């Protein structure tokens, strides 16, 4: 059984492999600031994509994507702006995606769902 930190790391690794298989180029994982963290930053065609990874082992608390509420979205948008400023990126096409991962009782991947433009 994984603790929360290891489970988060596992989710990000699963999501990274999944995104690479979908043609994304991973630029950075775990962009951290004192205001929070962006799980994955990737390139998908012309888009710079900020990816939030949500993993759950049961639906007791709802679908993982439901945890990315309005306030979480606003925090991720602010973190994306910090990233763009830090990297001096201007006029980029950006997008916010969510990767939802469900594990079975043995902590194997049960399903993965990619939500592109999740904040629209």
Automatic annotation (TrEMBL):
UniProt keywords, alphabetically: Endonuclease, Hydrolase, Nuclease
Molecular function terms, GO-annotated: endonuclease activity; nucleic acid binding
The organism's place on the tree of life at top rank: Bacteria
InterPro entries referenced in this protein's UniProt entry, alphabetically: Restrct_endonuc-II-like (IPR011335), tRNA_endonuc-like_dom_sf (IPR011856), UPF0102_YraN-like (IPR003509)
Coiled coil start-end: none
Alphabetical list of CDD domains matching this protein: PoNe_Nuclease
HAMAP family reported for this sequence: UPF0102
Family in the record: Belongs to the UPF0102 family.
Protein name per the record: UPF0102 protein CAAU_1667
Lineage, uppermost ranks: Bacteria, Bacillati, Bacillota, Clostridia, Eubacteriales
